[in-house]
Amino acid sequence: MDKTYPVLPLRDIVVFPHMIVPLFVGREKSVRALEEVMKDDRPILLVSQKNAGEDDPTADDIYEMGTLANVLQLLRLPDGTVKVLVEGSGRARITEFVENDDFFEASIVDVEEETGADKELQALQRSVLAQFELYVKLNKKIAPEVLVSANQIDDPSKLADTVASHLALKISDKQDLLSTIKVTERLEKVFSFMEGEIGVLQVEKKIRGRVKRQMEKTQREYYLNEQLKAIQKELGETDESREETAELEARIAETKLSKEAREKCIAELKKLKSMSPMSAEAPWCAIIWIGFCLCRGASAPASRKISIGLNMCWMKTIMVWKR
Questions:
Q1: Which CATH architecture has domain 118-205?
Q2: Contact 194/137 with Cβ under 8 angstroms?
Q3: 3-110, what's its fold?
Q4: Between 279 and 111, where is the model more confident?
Q5: Contact status, residue 127 vs residue 193, Cβ threshold 8 Å
Q6: Burial degree of 119 (CB within 10 A; 0-12, 13-18, 19+)
């Protein structure tokens, strides 16, 4: 038999049975609906809107499957809005809306759930709990106590609704779970949604780790460079040596070299940059190698004897470094 209850349209939330949730209510019709149920301590039907942006929804803007809920606490705020604490008790479907100018009111029928085979339910419960444990570990927004509570739930329907209420899903997806009457099917959907969410969370974790490592590397390089500058300053070095290596770097870039020779020159220049000209470990080998490559170029035969001109070129390279 149909029963009539005031209806509270919800935006951006789906309330499942067994959930205790605070709601902030500001629309006049919704406040009047709450006032009506508070008169004789009646339940109220919580139903989500199809479009959260609709300020003045009609019957067509509201889903037909909702949750009957008891009002545990109601607090009027100074700005005229109401904060209400509700607890979902069971699923209910709207059969028709009753004409009422003050608030939404509808005739509803209670929804009887279909359970399924015991062994299948047990297997699905275990799978959902194991998956939820991984989800909670990855999602830092969920308190560990939620997992403890979920592990103590024996009722498969309640477990499905409890887990569903903590998933970061679209309203339409949560409404789909609320509308799924067969418990085995609902558990399967919850498991499937969790798989998708876990995949996204794992990718996010990898990205965060990669960004963190890159930031740490950048910070370390900056710190080491600052240390190097301080050491060079203590040794009385100036920017002159950096200008000299920059000039050598420019000459390497301009000179036509084989791939192997260019790579070797760049490697030797890198070594040169890390050395101090005042160091006991004089960087002459690196300078001579770079000079040799720059003066010979890529076209010179490997067997060509070192000429006086080549020696002069080496000297010019050395003078760039020590002028």
A1: Up-down Bundle (1.20)
A2: no
A3: 2.30.130
A4: 111
A5: no
A6: exposed
